[in-house]
Amino acid sequence: MYVLGPCNGIMCLYQPPWGDVITLWNPSMRRSRMVKLSETKPLQGVHSFVSVGLAFDPQNNDFLILRILCVCQTINDVPNHVEMCSMKSFGVKGFRIIWKKLKNEMVFHTPGYSCDAIIKGMPYWLPYINDIVLCQTLVRFDVGNMVLEKLPVPPVIITGDYKHCLANFEDSHAMLMWEKRVGFCIDVSVMDEEDGWSKKRKIGPLWEFDRILGCLWNGNIVAENYERNVMVLFDPVTNSIKATLRIDNARKGSYMISNYSESLFLIEGMQPVRRQDELTHDLSRFGDQFIIILTLGELKSPLINSVNWLRCWCVADVSSFFP
């Protein structure tokens, strides 16, 4: 089971590799509902898996689910099949929920089962394209025009000498980049719609880590160290480690972190989620933030017989969830 979000307070749970058993979940309201599966079937030898994205349309006050049928890496002449489901259709009596195919002429290879980030209600992917040579690009779903669009990436990524993470850094579209060596620094570049990418900050040198999970509201960076099996909270202002967190029996690479804000938004057809049976939790302090560690292996739908155990960090005001 994969967890995507939040997007305006809504989380999306689904089963890889084909994006099945999609469930929308509002943790603060303790309600969820399943979404009718798409009737589009992957083509054998053409599609390798589905990547899911979640978006919010503020003009129509509507949530959108996107499915990208990702073509195999050996295929460079078949555009990715992209389809969208609107939550507005849930509220129309007798209206059958449908997935609408979106126009797309791009061919790209997405490495993951979900979008890499959701920033200001729009999902972003960092796929590879075969443009003479294999290189990485940035793809965004433009909610206003309901199309996928290709955006540039910082030039240093194209060289392949840097690892990178797309994140919402201090409410800006940001790329966090670091060299593949010990004692590295993080370069933070932000994207402006008109001026493109510009370097905003250099952080470090830092303690060794293997991947960046994301950023908190205050700009603090959360990273994971596989060898020591710990999560590290970096303060980019003081260039220091504010806290570390170790969780017993954790699988490396199995965590995500979400900046969750309480939302009263309900989608037509959402049903109550039983707290005791459906959701278990631990509560830890991580620096000056509370981390809710949610164990989602118990959150099953009638169509799931067994799911992989997964933990999700939600940075939030815990009083609204657990009185």
UniProtKB/TrEMBL annotation:
- The secretion signal range is none
Q: Per its UniProt entry, which superkingdom is the organism in?
A: Eukaryota
> Which InterPro entries does the protein's record reference?
F-box-assoc_dom_typ1, F-box-assoc_interact_dom
Coiled-coil portions:
none
Give the stretches traversing the membrane: none
Domain F-box associated beta-propeller type stretches: 6-238
What is the protein's given name? F-box associated beta-propeller type 1 domain-containing protein
Originating species: Anisodus tanguticus
